[in-house]
């Protein structure tokens, strides 16, 4: 089942290959350190106000311009609304696939299969954030409600710890019922369910792809990490499972989510490779424990604009990911 889904393709979630992009810097739209390309915030805000009048029409007519604006960063006060438009989450109800009161129905269910595990993990989700740090605050109750409702809605996935961080960041930008619909869209339309199902089949595929990409783009570093026993399974699981929420500055997290919701998982591979590239010199001289510490601290030691710029400058074709995916399926018939 997973193989069929992953091979189905998500054209609306993937960025065009680099040969279709005239200028990688033009596409990134991110200020270059020491350069002259900077975003005028007033002009950007005015553009977004016009775009949001009919976002889907603008994106269909001006996909390149839309991509540049999203990569520059969605304005904070519009972010929740635009995220929902990118994920087509409210369209789940308009398509009549689910009843309008689906969230309320799930909330009314008396027994949830993962309620105890969810309750135990609530206080670990953004423990320093004002919305979630108080046990009696509204945030923790909302987080519990959405996770509990989803575990009832999708018993096959149920609940996995990384899901708390995803719902946590969604609730910072939207209501409970909208966060619930976003979670459905993420696990269905973005194929994230495979990250949380028993055996973590999609996560294992991502590890395989990242290792191959590292060997292709930074062979010396790849060999050194292999010699030290450091594989993506050790350092990259949270990057993929939470879409770079854990250990990343909040300003970086939301920028990555902007691009992820518009272009799909390719940005996570690019961010992972960018972090390895930016720290390559230090990593090549380090042993196992030092490497793990460097990679743990890496996301917080780089400015958001710099990380996004480096990530988007990395050449990564959709065909390359598909070819590596096919190789993984050939070696893992049990996951097909």
How would you sum up this structure, described in words?
The chain is mainly α and 336 residues long. The chain has two domains: 1-87 and 200-336, Cyclin A, domain 1 (Orthogonal Bundle), CATH 1.10.472; 91-188, putative rabgap domain of human tbc1 domain family member 14 like domains (Helicase, Ruva Protein, domain 3). Helix content is 61%, strand content 0%. Helix 13 (201-217) packs across helix 22 (318-331). The longest helix has 17 residues, at 201-217.
Q: Might you state the CATH topology name of the largest domain? A: Cyclin A, domain 1
- CATH homologous superfamily label of the largest domain: Ypt/Rab-GAP domain of gyp1p, domain 3
Secondary-structure element sequence? HHHHHHHHHHHHHHHHHHHHHH
In whole angstroms, the N-to-C terminal distance is 7 Å
Characterize the biggest β-sheet. none
Q: How many individual domains? A: 2
Low-confidence stretches: 1-27, 31-36
CATH class of the largest domain: Mainly Alpha
The dominant shape is globular
Beta percentage is: under 5%
Total helical elements: 22
Structural class of the helices, strands and pairings? mainly alpha
Number of strands: 0
Supply the CATH architecture of the largest domain. Orthogonal Bundle
Oligomer kind: single chain
Helix content: 55-70%
Q: Output mean pLDDT.
A: 88
């Amino acid at each position: 089942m997973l193989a069929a889904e992953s091979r189905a393709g998500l054209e609306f979630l993937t960025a065009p290959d680099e040969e279709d992009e005239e200028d990688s810097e033009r596409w990134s739209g991110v200020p270059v350190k020491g350069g002259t390309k900077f975003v005028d915030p007033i002009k950007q805000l005015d553009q977004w106000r016009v775009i949001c009048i009919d976002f889907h029409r603008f994106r269909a007519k001006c996909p390149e311009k839309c991509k540049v604006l999203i990569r520059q960063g969605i304005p904070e006060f519009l972010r929740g609304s635009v995220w929902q438009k990118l994920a087509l989450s409210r369209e789940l109800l308009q398509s009549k696939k689910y009843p309008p009161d689906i969230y309320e129905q799930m909330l009314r269910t008396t027994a949830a299969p993962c309620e105890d595990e969810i309750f135990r993990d609530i206080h670990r989700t953004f423990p320093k954030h004002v919305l979630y740090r108080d046990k009696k605050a509204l945030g923790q109750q909302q987080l519990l409600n959405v996770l509990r409702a989803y575990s009832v809605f999708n018993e096959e996935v149920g609940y996995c710890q990384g899901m708390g961080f995803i719902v946590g960041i969604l609730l910072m930008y939207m209501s409970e019922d909208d966060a619930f619909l976003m979670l459905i869209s993420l696990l269905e339309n973005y194929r994230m369910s495979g990250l949380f199902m028993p055996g973590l089949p999609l996560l294992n595929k991502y590890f395989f792809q990242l290792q191959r990409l590292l060997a292709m783009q930074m062979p010396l570093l790849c060999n050194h990490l292999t010699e030290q026993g450091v594989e993506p399974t050790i350092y990259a699981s949270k990057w993929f499972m939470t879409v770079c929420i854990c250990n990343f500055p909040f300003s970086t997290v939301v920028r990555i989510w902007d691009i992820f919701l518009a272009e799909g998982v390719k940005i996570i591979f690019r961010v992972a490779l960018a972090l390895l590239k930016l720290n390559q010199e230090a990593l090549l001289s380090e042993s196992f424990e030092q490497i793990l510490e460097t990679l743990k601290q890496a996301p917080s030691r780089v400015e958001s604009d710099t990380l996004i710029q480096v990530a988007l400058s990395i050449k990564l074709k959709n065909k390359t990911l598909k070819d590596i995916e096919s190789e993984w399926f050939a070696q893992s018939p049990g996951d097909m």
